[in-house]
Amino acid sequence: MPFRLATAPAKPDRPNEDFAAVGTDAAVLLDGAGTPPGTESGCVHGVAWYSHTLGGLLLSALSSGDTLAGALASSIERVNRLHADTCDLKHSDTPSSTVVALRWDASELEYLVLADSSLVLDRAGTSPEVVTDDREAVVGAELRKPMDALPTGTPEHEQAVRDYVAALADHRNRPGEFWVANTDPGAADEAITGRVGLDEVAAVALLSDGATRLADRFGLATWRDTLDTLADAGPDALIARVREAENSDPQGQRWPRAKNHDDATVVYGHTPA
């Protein structure tokens, strides 16, 4: 299955906390949950290290024959062991990440989605199927209102972002709330999983939420438009369109958001004919 991949950091002077990679029969995309400036995480390595390390281990584990959830759980445990001696893994802001994992054989695709990155399946003859985990958005809808009422980039907005992140932490990885990958391997069992016949899918797209903004936050494109852009012009073109929209609303007045720009990553692949 041929793939194209593109990624762009939110700011050129900050690490890209997204991670994506493709193997011979699997693909992964992770979006690390960044801590706002001035917020401690208890981890000396940082969010980019966490998402990149977990992503690499997960891609390797997907070839083990384990279930997707089992591969994610074992990868979380391995990352824990890598920094348990140097970092406070019980800190409320310890690094975390979304996960999209895809694995295929000659007849079938398996997928796993945890937190708010998305998998889009281009099903022949019907509307795209979007698999995303919206539990964080549901929990955060009320919590984010003070942040969304302020212009992006102002000191008041930056403080509101820190307050929002702190409030959201009280709901993370708890039954009935929302789940992400961080230190609890049990989060893997809370992921959305599924299977689909390879002959039912024309193309697949794995996207971090920084790359889905045109469709799910800005309302400037449908998911069909998104897939068509990827097919015709590629992942870089989709990210460029996101950046153009963001630049047209630098203070978040039209589209309130925590950050003007977010790390944006796309993995796009065609299934065999």
Short description:
The protein has 273 residues and is an alpha+beta fold.
Work out the helix count. Answer: 8
Q: What count of domains describes the coordinates?
A: 1
CATH class: Alpha Beta
Distance between the termini: 10 Å
Helix content: 25-40%
Strand and helix order = EEEHHEEEEHHHEEHHHE
The CATH topology corresponds to Phosphatase 2c, domain 1
**How big a fraction of the residues is strand?**
15-25%
Largest sheet: 5 strands, antiparallel
Describe it.
Residues 14-234 form the PPM-type phosphatase domain. InterPro entries: PPM-type-like_dom_sf (IPR036457), PPM-type_phosphatase-like_dom (IPR001932). It contains eight helices and ten strands. The strands form two sheets. A five-stranded antiparallel beta sheet has the order 1-10-9-6-7, covered by helices on one side. Strands 2-3-4-5-8 form a five-stranded antiparallel beta sheet, with helices on one face. The chain has one domain: Phosphatase 2c, domain 1 (4-Layer Sandwich), CATH 3.60.40.10. β6 (118-123) and β7 form a beta hairpin. α1 packs across α2. The termini are close together. The mean pLDDT is 94. The protein is globular and about 55 Å long. It is of the alpha+beta class and 273 residues long.
Keywords:
single chain; 273 residues; alpha+beta; Phosphatase 2c, domain 1; 5-stranded antiparallel β-sheet; 10 strands; 32% helix; PPM-type_phosphatase-like_dom; PPM-type phosphatase domain-containing protein
Q: Secondary-structure blueprint of this entry?
A:
Elements: E1 3-8, E2 18-22, E3 26-33, H1 47-61, H2 68-83, E4 96-104, E5 108-114, E6 118-123, E7 129-132, H3 135-143, H4 145-148, H5 155-169, E8 192-197, E9 201-207, H6 213-216, H7 223-232, H8 235-247, E10 264-270
Antiparallel strand pairs: 1-10, 2-3, 3-4, 4-5, 5-8, 6-7, 6-9, 9-10
